């Protein structure tokens, strides 16, 4: 049991301490943005008592996805690059649709 625990401690030290650098910090910041989008969505839904996707969700998605793409490019991870790259198009498209919807609503008011 001691050897298993020691192996775990060694692994945790290698993963979270030895390789920690600015890129890992960027990855954690990006992951924070990604986590915040779900927190924002959850809070908005709880307040409305129905499922809601607020605009902040898409901005956190764009911020987190963009930073994770930079991180993935630096790490040369093709799976992560492809996934985050595609996600960015979806986030930008949703923000574009929201902007068009607001612009249309404003032109009806005038």
From TrEMBL:
InterPro entries to which the protein is assigned, alphabetical: Lipid_A_biosynth_N, UCP028440_lipidA_biosyn
Molecular-function annotations in GO: lipid-A-disaccharide synthase activity
Q: Which UniProt keywords apply?
A: Membrane, Transmembrane, Transmembrane helix
Entry GO CC = membrane
A GO BP entry is: lipid A biosynthetic process
Which superkingdom heads the taxonomic lineage of this protein's source?
A: Bacteria
Domain Lipid A biosynthesis N-terminal: from-to ranges: 26-97
SMART domains in the record, alphabetically? LAB_N (SM01259)
Listed Pfam families: LAB_N (PF07578)
User: Where do the TM regions start and end?
Assistant: 20-40, 52-73, 79-99
Name assigned to this protein: Lipid A biosynthesis N-terminal domain-containing protein
Natural source organism: Mesorhizobium hungaricum
